Amino acid sequence: MKRFAYLRSSDAVTLAFLLIVTGVHLLFAPRIPQWYIAVLSNVVLGSAILLSTRSVYRSGAQSNAAVRLFRDWYLLPSILLIYAQTSSIAYPLHGRDYDTWLIAADRWLFGTDPTHWISQFAHPVLTELLQLAYASYYLFFIVLFTELYRRQDHTWFRGGALLVVYGFYLSYIGYMLLPAIGPRFTLHDFSTLDAELPGLFLTEYLRAFINAGGGAPSGAADPLLSVHRDAFPSGHTQLTLVAMYIAFASRARIKWWLLAGGTLLIISTVYMRYHYVTDLLAGLLFFLLTVWSGKRIDAWWNRNQ
Fold it and tell me: CB 252: neighbour CB atoms within 10 A?
């Protein structure tokens, strides 16, 4: 293990998951369009991680500033890259979606479809607030880890990074195992969401931006053909809870802001029709698994370096 002393636990987990995703692409290449682009991207990213981490480890403060910046922050674009791969290949792997299972679970638990039930509380002001909360998802991590990065002691910056990326990768495994598109497509008319759930000023633009990022851009002839399968589990619920945990455990200054904003974000996942409540419950279980096993992985890796 000493030979990998230049890798942090988050680096090791990222490299391991890149190998897993690359293996899936190679194994199921006949089912995955342009699989070779993903494989090449993963090889380039993995090489960049190894080269930058080793360079900074060897040269320390004397290493190139741009290389140090990439070494400390590459995880954010990596999460987005791997998300796009895993959520877009989920349907080709199975040839079907499993929304009917999730709808049945919601109806068994609640006797109704929660996204229909919560529509009785819809109001443009509330819609605007909750769409803003949902759109702030990645901002939570940027603000939180910027605060942790500015500390002299980077213990929480590094340990927290492991919990976040590990949590994301666990959710991506869920996407690949149980592809689902969510209630905005199955229980509601996706083409009329702007009319049925209007906001005030930014909702329509934020909704369009999120749709495009999830593989359903405006004007798509049939968004079901391209939309990412990322409903189960609710990564927004899982990782928002992870961010809350890190914020309070590290005594971050933004912990109360993150608690308030994160609570609204979790509510928004159902109100804005992105998720079934079953997805949120799964997100809670994935959160508990992330913290329980992630802390052990981090401790084991650090102990053996």
Answer: 21
Q: Which helix (H) or strand (E) holds 129?
A: helix 124-135
Query: 232 vs 103, 246, 264, 278, CA distance in Å?
Result: 12, 23, 19, 8
- Cα separation, 87 vs 238, whole angstroms: 16
Supply 282's token pair. Answer: 């799964």
- 224-234: pLDDT as tens digits: 989 999 999 99
| Chain segment 121-134, per-residue pLDDT in tens | 999 999 999 999 99
Q: What's the pLDDT band for 64 if we cut at 50, 70, 90?
A: confident
Residue at 125: amino acid letter: V
Look at the pTM and tell me if it is higher than 0.85. yes
| Residue spans per domain, the chain | 2-303
The answer to whether the beta carbons of residues 132 and 265 sit under 8 Å apart is no
Rounded-to-integer distance, Cα 79 and Cα 117, Å? 33
**pLDDT reading at 262 higher than 90:** yes
Candidates 203, 169, 192; CA nearest to 81 is 169
Residue 273 region, left (φ>0) first, then alpha (ψ -120 to 50), else beta? left
CA dihedral for 54, 59, 60, 64, sign (positive or negative): negative
Name the strand (E) or helix (H) holding 181: none
Helix 75-94 and helix 155-177, axial crossing angle in degrees, nearest 10: 10
Confidence class of residue 2 from pLDDT cuts 50, 70 and 90? low
CA–CA distances in Å: residue 238 to residues 12, 88, 164, 169, 253 = 21, 20, 10, 11, 21
Which amino acid is located at 178 in the chain?
L
Backbone phi and psi for residue 103, each to the nearest 5 degrees, phi listed first: -65, -45
Query: Which pLDDT does position 75 carry in this prediction?
Result: 94
Report the run of H or E that residue 1 belongs to, with start and end.
none
